[in-house]
Amino acid sequence: MIIILRPHAAPKQEQSLCEYIESCGLKAVSVPGDGRSVLCVVGDASALAADYIRSLDFVESVKAVTAPYRLAGRLSHPDDSVISVGSVSIGGGGFAVIAGPCSVESREQVCGIASAVKASGATLLRGGAFKPRTSPYDFQGLRSDGIPLLLEAKRLTGLPVVSEILDMSQLPLFVDVDVIQVGARNMQNTELLKALSRCGKPILLKRGWSNTVDELLTSAEYLMSGGNADVILCERGIRTFETATRNTLDLSAVPVIKERSHLPVIVDPSHAAGKSAYVEPMALAAAAAGADGVMIEVHNDPAHARCDGPQALTPQRFDALCKKLFAVRKAVMSCEN
Prior knowledge:
It is built from ten helices and 14 strands. It is of the alpha/beta class.
């Protein structure tokens, strides 16, 4: 249930309504709106007397929500959310470029790539310390030894860091990581999502390769219902019958998510394409589709990368891509204005 209060509603009136909602065993989350407050009721709203709530003179309207994502949905939050990561804003008209190696391999590798991508216009540095791999024999990342190397690259360049967590027991290692990534395999790991809802850090939530948009938004709801409103969604391709690419990049998910949710959405063409030659056109298409950013894998020596080398761009190719990306984004924004 969504309860929209009138502009003149007093804080005491809002508080009394919240207390009534909570007395029914539900949770009321206040979302500031355009000159008025919106209360999002989390839980089974059938326990509430909707007619009584409508009769209150400070209540403008009461709307039932059938979608399972009350907080992530646009009905409770009509304006686009903007997620702040240090001095970087994601959403609300900005365009974030997240770039870096699939996995951290050495100090020289990650620091060198970080310096290169920053010079090209990247706003955040990505790098995997913990790597979930299909085969148990593949490189699993430097694990706890990888995060200090990422943080050293952050100190060198000033770029905020994005890295993937695999298990809630790893949370203490991520104290200084700016954005915690939940990968496709863990999108529906509800216990991990609950733990991250209380971590106080922005979460980059990747869509699972066999999950619908609604399932992605419901996973975001786990994070938000636990108190973490700083959620960034990521389309990274889904598994279909097509084998020409690693996954099928579902760019239609961008406008669909933007219609249903206020959360920013970025696109990862590297994992979708699986081949570096396809990354540039897909990244440009994502910018044209209205994505709030892209995540690009960059490696200084893709042929010898320990993880996902075929899909990584060299720093030189990434630099050329950024020039085109910003031109496309500028053209899209000028058309909208």
